[in-house]
Amino acid sequence: MNFDYLFNTQLDALKDEGNYRIFAELERQCGAFPKAKCHDDESPDEVTVWCSNDYLGMGQHPKVRAAMQEAIDRCGTGAGGTRNISGTNHEHLLLERELADLHGKEAALLFTSGYVSNWASLSTLGARLPNAVILSDSLNHASMIEGIRHARCQKVIWEHNDPEDLDRKLAALPANATKIVAFESVYSMDGDIAPIREIVEVAEKHGAMTYLDEVHAVGLYGPRGGGVAEREGLMDRITLIEGTLGKAYGCMGGYVTGSAALCDFIRSFASGFIFTTALPPAVAAAARTSIAHLKTSDIERMQQRRQVARLRQMLDQKGIPHLENPSHIIPVMIKDPVKCRMLSDILMREWGIYVQPINYPTVPKGTERLRFTPSPLHTDAEIEHLVEALTVLWKQCAIAHAVA
Ligand SMILES: *Cc1c(COP(=O)(O)O)cnc(C)c1O
């Protein structure tokens, strides 16, 4: 039997739409961030990465690397088991304590990724709590959507970042419902930030729990990198704060923080926590070092902000439209999947600039974009080079008219 035609029919449809994903084959160069070797035949050997989620370059920080190396020499590579069966390492507990402290919570629970932490936690809460109803922001990340789907409880979608709509939808629910309001702080595609205070107030008014994904904010916002809720002084009013160790902290893994009972509940009932090998102890050690560093060091955040402002200002000078937002994410809207892919290809091949096209289903059709994330390690010269390339392409391509 040959099943490949079944696979290829759907792949061909994806290619026709311009939404087929092509991954750039990179080799990150430690110490040269944001430069990477590029293994694609048609591209220069070295490119500047403009779309990394290693927002502060912490994945190459000397202290973080040293912590990982030291822990490998001490503990070896893998955890050796699931958390339940021999895999709970001292390093996991040290990291969980660090995370609880970061968010001012009683406890934290580690997962192998942020995706798994959202999926496992939301599905467990929704499935186990009596008469659970999850109220989900309409632009929530795929990991939350999948977790909610798996919970098989009632789900209500509220308008993105709209506390009034949330208020109406909460008011319509029966009194005996256990209500869970799930949302993010920084939305990574538009770079907008949720009105957390208003959302928390609406949730409190209706006796609802709050579940906040701070994946794109931890390490970056708040005096100790605790996220937007820390910056706004709201951490203690949020039931559960979720985050990742894979983005600004430059490592890998995900977590939730909250009361001791909440974390114990998820620990005890979430299949995605229990039935998988624990994170390597060295990853936990590196992540803890990265978190501890960013709790006291502000230099990285300050320099990142400077470079973000600089890129925005230079794009404005050249009349290249980008979405205004209060975060570190700069989306340049292309609004066409084929053009978006084409621009990305030209930037890579002719300019040594790597920015992945963001197409459907990551964003809605017609809102395709290039999404730039300047780091503290992008130099002024690299920013100028990027803006020059975009200016030239903007003049050449018909997009100028489509966007104007
Ligand atoms: C990336 C992302 C996640 C998943 O985190 P990983 O650690 O990469 O699995 C969760 N939520 C949001 C909003 C994300 O963008």
In short:
The chain is built from 16 helices and 14 strands. The protein is α/β, with parallel strands linked by helices and 404 residues long. The strands form 3 sheets. Strands 4-10-9-8-7-5-6 form a 7-stranded mixed sheet, sandwiched between helices. A 4-stranded mixed sheet has the order 1-2-3-12.
Indicate the percent of residues in helices: 40-55%
Order of helices and strands: HEEEHHHEHEHEHEHEHEEHHHHEHEEEHH
Structural class: alpha/beta
Strand content: 15-25%
The counted number of beta strands is: 14
Compute the separation of the termini in Å: 52 Å
Strand order of the largest sheet: 4-10-9-8-7-5-6
Principal-axis shape equals: globular
Largest sheet: 7 strands, mixed
Bound molecules: pyridoxal-5'-phosphate
Q: If you average the pLDDT, what whole number results?
A: 96
